[in-house]
Amino acid sequence: MKKTTGEKIFDVFNVILMIALSITMLYPYINQIAISLNDGMDTILGGITVYPRKFTWVNYRTIFTSDSISRAFFLTVFIAVAHTLTSLFVTTAAAYTMSKKDLPFKNAITWFLIIPMYISGGIIPTFILYRYLGLLNNVLVYIIPGAFSFYNMIIIRTFIKGLPASLEESAMLDGANEAIVLFKIILPLSMPVIATVALWLAVGAWNSWTATLYYVNERSLYTLQYVVMQLIKQSDVLQQLAAETALTGGEMTKEAQTTSESVKAAAIIFSTIPIVLTYPFLQKYFVKGVTIGAVKD
């Protein structure tokens, strides 16, 4: 059908709006890439936009040769994978159970699970609990406490309830038990919502640094984001010292030259690349999983 003048104007407005939003969201990231590829001493002068003024790989070499960042990277990869798989198993099993209409005390269980979403024990009681459970300075502190999410369970449960009940009934008549139904029928059909929740979990685990701040003081258990956060703080201090030194005409120290705004930008790009590369492969499931999981009931 031929579009009216109003529809054409609306389409043009949408295109302009989307372009403006894309530029607004992409520019900071592109700017950080440009800074990460620029000479550290030159970066102090400012004015870097979307391309490096003095191209160099030294900032990334500084990142890759850092033992703490390399160790933190592989640890964070392990945590993200382990946390995602563990949480998916626990949450999906709970969602399948809660999707049963004949589940005893279903309402009571729902209220028992929903209350902690709004009422938290606080940092101090949580710290004491983790200490008695032996989770302090333990890699399991990144995996076990967040293994269950009520919100994710509701999303998956709602999706499961939207599947044809006849599939499960047919499997039961053929002699299948609950485990077979879950793993052979429910899970394959629920891949859109499973992929969506997996993306949420992976991104959350990858970006988390507060657990390290609160419950870990062993450097070997520092996550990548916590190391990057420390690097950013160190970079801010050294950048200030470098600026003061430049104003007074003093000689720049080697540490101030290497740990600059450019190294900080390189660390930020390095820590975000895995998620940026992973998202496109799950994007096709993302909208479908959220829409169906949130709307159907």
Mean pLDDT: 82
Q: What is the CA-based Rg, rounded?
A: 25 Å
Give the CATH topology.
MetI-like fold
The outline comes out as: globular
CATH architectural name:
Orthogonal Bundle
Task: Set out the fold topology.
Blueprint: H1 5-36, H2 40-43, H3 58-64, H4 67-98, H5 106-118, H6 123-133, H7 150-161, H8 165-173, H9 178-189, H10 191-207, H11 210-215, H12 224-248, H13 254-258, H14 261-295
Helix pairs in contact: 1-14, 3-14, 4-7, 4-10, 4-12, 7-14, 8-9, 10-14, 12-14
Gist?
The protein is mainly α and 297 residues long.
List the defining traits of the structure above:
single chain; 297 residues; mainly alpha; MetI-like fold; 14 helices; 0% strand; globular
Structural features, described:
There is one protein chain. This protein has 297 residues and is mainly alpha-helical. It has a single domain, classed as MetI-like (MetI-like fold, Orthogonal Bundle). The chain has 14 helices and no strands. The chain has helices at residues 5-36, 40-43, 58-64, 67-98, 106-118, 123-133, 150-161, 165-173, 178-189, 191-207, 210-215, 224-248, 254-258, 261-295. Residues 293-297 have low confidence and may be disordered.
